[in-house]
């Protein structure tokens, strides 16, 4: 039977994961090292290895936590709700994730760009199952004439692309807009208009 972790152990584990998120989101899996993670966490490398036996273990823990965070906004779509409002709510939640969790978004993007070697089973399993289920819901709303007829998977892909862009390409977005613009405030209004018009039956 595994002993419950002490408060110090839980705190150190959280510190390591937060430091690893910084390092992995900047350097990717291949470019990151345990020495970098330990330095950012303010711990010795042997201390880090007490909690996580390898770089793969740290990365895996981050990706597992991230997948739950990433799927929750889509799970929150209510099948009994008003379709356009539910889809716009999903767009807003995804945009908020990009605003509040940019490191996590970049971590996920880096993993996908490398061919998803450490998270592909979850993408092909849990993520695909949820997207398929929500695509069936979108198709039902289309069949009922409540939203425009669109390829449902591609509708979801477009929401991902138009929201996660603001985290994954943050430097480019801010360089183009300039320092006086809040890209997320402007993006929310723009995306609401875009999808409201797109979804109109």
Task: Outline the structure in words.
The structure is a single chain. The protein is mostly helical and 201 residues long. It has two domains: 1-53, Orthogonal Bundle (Arc Repressor Mutant, subunit A), CATH 1.10.10.60; 60-199, Tetracycline Repressor, domain 2 (Orthogonal Bundle). 78% of the residues lie in helices and 0% in strands. It has helices at residues 7-31, 34-41, 45-51, 55-75, 83-100, 102-113, 120-143, 152-168, 170-177, 183-199. It is globular. The model has no long low-confidence stretch (mean pLDDT 91).
CATH superfamily of the largest domain: Tetracycline Repressor, domain 2
Structural class: mainly alpha
Q: What pattern of helices and strands is seen along the backbone?
A: HHHHHHHHHH
Number of strands: 0
**Average pLDDT value?**
91
The biggest sheet, with number of strands, parallel, antiparallel or mixed sense and barrel status, is: none
| Fraction in helix | over 70%
First and last CA, distance? 57 Å
Number of domains: 2
What features would you highlight for this structure?
single chain; 201 residues; Arc Repressor Mutant, subunit A; Tetracycline Repressor, domain 2; 78% helix; globular
């Amino acid at each position: 039977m595994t002993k419950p972790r002490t408060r110090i152990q839980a705190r150190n584990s959280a510190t390591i994961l937060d430091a690893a998120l910084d390092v992995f989101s900047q350097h990717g899996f291949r470019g990151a090292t345990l020495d970098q993670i330990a330095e950012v966490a303010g711990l010795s490398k042997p201390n880090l290895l007490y909690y996580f036996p390898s770089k793969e273990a740290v990365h895996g823990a981050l990706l597992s936590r991230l997948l739950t965070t990433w799927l929750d906004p889509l799970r929150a779509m209510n099948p009994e709700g008003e379709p356009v409002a539910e889809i716009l709510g999903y767009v807003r939640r995804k945009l908020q994730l990009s605003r509040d969790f940019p490191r996590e978004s970049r971590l996920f993007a880096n993993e996908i760009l490398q061919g998803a070697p450490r998270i592909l089973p979850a993408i092909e399993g849990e993520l695909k199952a949820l997207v398929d289920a929500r695509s069936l819901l979108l198709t039902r709303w289309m069949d009922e004439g409540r939203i425009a007829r669109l390829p449902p998977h591609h509708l979801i892909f477009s929401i991902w692309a138009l929201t996660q862009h603001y985290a994954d390409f943050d430097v480019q977005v801010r360089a183009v807009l300039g320092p006086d613009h809040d890209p997320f405030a402007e993006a929310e209004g723009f995306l609401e208009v875009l999808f409201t018009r797109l979804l109109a039956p």
